[in-house]
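Narrative progress, year one. The postdoctoral researcher (J.K.) led the effort to move from monomer predictions toward full complexes, under supervision of the PI. The following entry was the first complex the group processed end to end, covering 326 residues in total.
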Amino acid sequence: MYKIAVLGDYDSIYGFAALGLDIFPEEDPEEAAKKLHELAGGGYAVVYVTEKLADQLDGVIEKYRERVFPAIILIPGVSGNTGRGVESVRKSVEQAVGSDILFSK
Amino acid sequence: MASAAVTPTRMELTRQKKRLATATRGHKLLKDKRDELMRQFMDLVRENMALREKVEAGIRAANANFVIAKAGMSEESLRVAFMAPRQEVYLETSTRNVMSVDIPVFEYKTRTADSNDIYSYGYAFTSGDLDAAVKSLADILPDMLLLAEREKACQLMAAEIEKTRRRVNALEHVIIPEAQQNIKYITMKLDENERSTQIRLMKVKDMMLEEAHHYKERQQA
């Protein structure tokens, strides 16, 4: 039985608490990285991270990219969309095909 | 080339031929695997992108709702409202095997079946906008979970495709040519040895005949 976590600044994620996801307000990248490691080992199958925070957690997120669990998924925060989530999909295409043939504009 | 390392013997030749056969078969299989993975990946990644756009738009809209809701009430009462959530979401996870890639399958369960349990507060001290905001977020949760599943699958498959592609390339451009080269080298070397033995035998035969019949002396006489 796995749980779902949401990581980011409080204003972006507090709504998810109502739905029954576990929220972890973090803004400091180091604290967040520590938390992410903790969540990955602690029975969370999906961790949603706000794009703004993810910008500062590059290496950590990359580490979990090729593992089955947890799935770290980027979501836009209250301050807007940085395009990082879409970027990560593009990255998959680039990794698989060699160049981005699907979504490049 | 690598041919300096192989010893030109029949045993080695058989070994290299076997290696070439295995490599060729492996190359064909891996190429098929790569193509099929790629086909499935393309479908999956398109779906992934569509879902992501939908979810991002949904969250953006929900966030806007939350901002409006927050404007109508105090920070404290907002925090209090979300302090003790009534609903909980659990995931049942399993994995599905797609072309030897284990991709996750999520099935989510809520603690209570009542869809109204997302409102973890009494309605007296919160604005009505908050209810709408929570509802809008709850509506995209299934899509968010689906996105998590698809996106992870895409990442795992991309990694597998990359690995398979490398293997195909290594077989095609290194292992197979190397084996072919070795086989050619050994065959030529063996033929060469055979010819030299043949010549030596002919020479020996000449010498023995000369010994027995003394052709040269007779010619002079």
